[in-house]
Amino acid sequence: MKTALVHDWLNQMGGAENVLEAMVDMFPGSPVYTSMYGPDLMPASYRSWDIRTSYMQRLPGVTTHHQAYLPFYPKAFEGFDFSGYDLVLSNKSGFCHGVITPPETLHICYCLTPTRFLWMYDAYRQREGLGQVTNRALQPVLARLRRWDRMAADRVDQFIAISTEIQTRIKRYYGHDSVVIYPPVDVERFTPSSRQPGDYYLAGGRLIPYKRVDLAVQAFNELDRPLLIYGDGRDRESLQALAGPNVTLLGRVSPERLIDLYQHCRAFVFPGLEDFGIAPLEAQAAGRPVIAFGGGGALDTIIDGETGVLFDEQTVESLIAAVLRCEATQFRPAACRRNAERFSLDRFRRELMNFVETTYVEHREN
Hints:
The protein has 14 helices and 13 strands. It is an alpha/beta fold. The strands form 3 sheets. It has a 7-stranded parallel sheet with strand order 3-2-1-4-5-6-7, with helices on both faces. It has a 3-stranded parallel sheet with strand order 8-9-10, sandwiched between helices. α6 (about 165-175) links the parallel β6 (about 160) and β7 (about 180). The two termini are about 15 Å apart.
């Protein structure tokens, strides 16, 4: 199949880019269409890809302030020409599912989430701290983009969801059915240690509001148990101010240091509501249990009482109770590892390719 890959933007690294890298490996030589690309902001390996950008690439400051160009994305993705392609595979959390394909071309959308700031705006507004003036100014733009986003979903031939949570959102906001194929997790990087775990708990990643690391800090201040937090982000200063003497912010750590931190923590603490969540699976691959808020992707990736503990409310009291329950439960590193292996890179490649091939045959027959 002559294949084109489509991605929202290439100016930051995250879970979406991990998925894209796996797709590029699966479909070598396929061009990657995107709204804009900042080579200096992405891994050097991306420079060997065939990356094709939209007219947005010429807009001033777009790679560092892409949110300011919100109304421009629909036209950017509608402007690409996919004549001659058998398959278009879009990797979407924003607008890239809105590409226009010929009838004979199969368009499969790997949906990381329906566009969050359109359909879950109240949570997004709170997360970003948007004021009243900005909120009022955005409303007409958001209303217009919601109409376009819903219409664009009808251009997709088949949706794939990254979790049951996202499968529910695709049905709710777009009115489409989907299958679940979990994102790839590089579980081979992480293995259980032969040493006994330490006395500390671990949290971290991108330190931004919706991750709710503040909840972990407050809970462990009250518990007076050691908590290590890795990573960086705009919440770092406020978390540092909130932290008691038992809480240590490590900043960015090397990949080798992160593996060691996972392997020897008592448990990994994951208090945010995530669409999927890679870090809890990395911790389980290292043989350690996870204490997580019982919503979103955590419901798919953590077996309560076997590979971790789920708590029902994003409150300090609920998290404290989960920590105490975790300490009263025996977890087997082998069980945690076995659960993480269900989400491996090889499994992702196999399931995605099988779905693509089967769907392509059906598309051609129809």
